[in-house]
UniProtKB/TrEMBL annotation:
Keyword check for Oxidoreductase: yes
Superkingdom of origin organism: Bacteria
Name used for this protein in its record: Xanthine dehydrogenase family protein subunit M
Species this protein is from: Bradyrhizobium pachyrhizi
Transmembrane segments: none
Length: 293
């Protein structure tokens, strides 16, 4: 199909982009990579009156580290995230997750912030924003506000941005050297949306898990950060018995949908299998860091 008619503007400052969105009266859309937005426009699922292209704003293309946090600007491409040496060193789980995102052509144009804003519950970057305590910076003519990733995702393809707001950057936690991590995803083909995915991190203190994080995607209307699983792991050694408890908890609490790709029961089964792998890998990585002099 062809898109409905729209105007196109390319501001060169954040303030100008904010003014353009305000002028649209809630009927404008920001475009950076367009890998999710343009197919929706072509199918007329979205009919903006104006597309506001933010690629001309130089300040939005930076990856910066400060105080144990990493800031990714709104036009940072997936390929930049996948190849940045700072991310490889300090957030290796994000580096791993990025290689599961779609295909090379999509990664060359799509953006980290755009994926988070699109809020697809089966996409990797929204889940990573949750896992890594993401803080979203949103801008409008009214000023700037901070939104925690935990409050950002409202439903499938729904976020908490106001119609005249757009994201300028997202900050996420860096991982200290003693943190072990596990990332396990299952899709029918590489680059397809995942049927289920688990991401987890932890350190080891006195032989027990410390600072455990556990997130999932593909098994709910939003990406999930599962505090109940984290509480179960915290302060305990990750043994087969503990992992069995985690799997039982997931079976009891997850309510995935049945769709043309997989049944709810199959997604629930996958979740348990992936959790076993991810927890085992994260524990072993954390243990290796403890063993190193």
């Amino acid at each position: 199909m062809k898109p409905a008619p729209f105007d196109f503007v390319r501001p060169t400052t954040i303030s100008a982009a904010s003014e353009e969105l305000a002028r649209c009266g809630g009927d404008g859309k920001i475009i950076a990579g367009g890998q999710s937005l343009m197919p929706m426009i072509n199918f007329r699922l979205v009919k903006p009156s104006v597309l506001v292209d933010i690629n001309g704003i130089a300040d939005l293309s930076q990856i910066e580290s400060s105080g144990g946090r990493l800031r990714l600007g709104a036009t940072v491409r997936h390929y930049m995230t996948a190849t940045d040496p700072l991310i490889q060193e300090r957030i290796p789980i994000l580096h791993e997750a990025m290689h599961h995102v779609a295909h090379l052509t999509v990664r060359n144009r799509g953006t980290f912030c755009g994926s988070v804003c699109h809020a697809d519950p089966a996409a990797e970057m929204p889940m990573m924003a949750l896992l890594l305590n993401g803080q979203i910076t949103a801008r409008s003519v009214r000023g700037e506000r901070q939104i925690a990733a935990a409050d950002f995702f409202q439903g499938s393809l729904m976020n908490s941005l106001e119609p005249d707001e757009f994201v300028t950057s997202i900050e996420i936690d860096e991982l200290s050297a003693d943190v072990g991590w596990g990332f396990e995803e299952f899709a029918k083909r590489h680059g397809d949306f995942a049927l289920a995915c688990v991401a987890t991190t932890m350190s080891i203190r006195d032989g027990a898990a410390c600072g455990a994080r556990f997130a999932m995607m593909g098994v709910g209307e939003t990406p999930l950060r599962l505090g109940s699983v984290e509480a179960l792991i915290e302060g305990r050694e990750v043994t087969p018995d503990l992992v069995n408890e985690v799997v039982e908890l997931l079976n009891d609490t997850l309510r995935p949908n049945t769709d043309l790709h997989a049944s709810a029961d199959y997604r629930r089964h996958l979740s348990g299998a992936l959790a076993r792998r991810a927890l085992d890998v994260a524990w072993r990585r954390a243990a290796r860091s403890v063993e190193q002099p």
